[in-house]
Amino acid sequence: MRRATPVPTGILIDLSSAASPLYQRIYESIRQAILTGELSPRTALPSTLGLAEELGVSRITVLQAYEMLISEGYLYGVAGSGTFVAEILPEEFLYVPSPNRSSVKPYVEARLSDRGSRMAEFAPFSPALRQPRRPFDATEYTTDLFPSDIWARLGARRYRLWKRDWLQYGEPAGYRPLREALAAYLRTARGVDCTTDQVMIFSGLASMTTFVAQTLTDPGDTVWVGGTTDIHVPAAFEMAGASVVHAPFDGDSDMGLSSNVPLSARLAYVFPSCNEPMGDVMSMARRLVLLQWAQDHSAWVIESDDSGEFRYQGRPLPSLQGLDQHGRTFYVATFNRVLFPSLRLAYVVVPKALVQQFVAARAVYDVHSPVFEQMVLADFISEGHFQRQIRRLRLAYAERQRVLVDAAKDQLAGLLDIQPRDSGVQIVGWLPPGSSEHAAVEAAARHDVVVEPLERLSY
Description:
This protein has 14 helices and 14 strands. By secondary structure, the chain is an alpha/beta fold. The chain has two domains: about 5-95, Winged helix-like DNA-binding domain superfamily/Winged helix DNA-binding domain (Arc Repressor Mutant, subunit A, Orthogonal Bundle); about 115-385, Type I PLP-dependent aspartate aminotransferase-like (Major domain) (Aspartate Aminotransferase, domain 2). The strands form four sheets. Strands 6-12-11-10-9-7-8 form a seven-stranded mixed beta sheet, with helices on both faces. A three-stranded antiparallel beta sheet has the order 3-5-4. The longest helix is centred in the C-terminal third of the chain and has 27 residues, at about 385-410.
């Protein structure tokens, strides 16, 4: 075992530990001596050859340690003279002096902007603030079926292929191979009419909805939300200054456009393939009426499709966007349900007429989403894992729904009526007439069970 060895500078260099490489131990010993004052500023260090002979190591080892110390600012070299301890150490730039805490600072009254205050009011409904997770929490996504071993392998492979170019800015629209993979999947699996250039990647659905709201609506515009929705949708449009009108589905009529949807609305946000948690599916007649309304009033339609893949009877329904002959429809979705919510990736298919403007605005908004995760996801999709995961989840969700419905019939008869659904990953339980929704929610909470009252989804 190597011992601590004195060097001509008067310090000890400890090479006895095997926990780190030799050059790292030399680096740490010299750095510590500098920080404790054993080596004062401008002190000359031995040459790399001399110190290597003194320590019984190769000159390359000492050279590595010196180069690290010089690059970090502890040492400096003078051509023809040697290596010296720096006068000003890097630590002096890393820490600021502790402020004088003796004086009491006066209280300063502060407030957010009106927009910021309104945003904060939505916070209690945010799934990110609901900790810890509890049974039946509608904001909890299924992650026990995620193939983490495959994802880890793909990520490790990407790290091995690391290129310096990956450290630069990426395309505002997103990593192109991922957009290519998504466009191919959407055309075949969801009936979306799109090219790669129309697909844009965002850091989560909330970020994407905020961007869309700010680029498509002006203060005072009316936005119609058809069906129940998460809090990020009305929040995003209200933050943009729009007026949000909520209009629940009304059976299989023509969407009640004459009564529910203002003719002057700038935009309609709908869930045609599956409106969670009710499970409503928009009929073909209703879809055509909506598309005609958008064309007649120069309005936009945003089709949200987070649960469209999860149908348990028959084939998945084709997208609304694929029926649009006038280019008035945006198609949006996220990977929260199929993969996992912390991935923070979502995408939008933009009408061709707006692609260039959207890309330009995105370059200013937040430039682009993190690229490495997009690379791994592109591999995950192109190698077939994505569609296999959807098939796996579809079977698992159908079985879990069956177990829940059977258990409810057996143990909750007369208290809660739960009927099976043909699509989606959420389900509604109906209380007996005259029951209090709030009382039921509070009673469940006392048993550490989270259930959502429907009124919270109709903002």
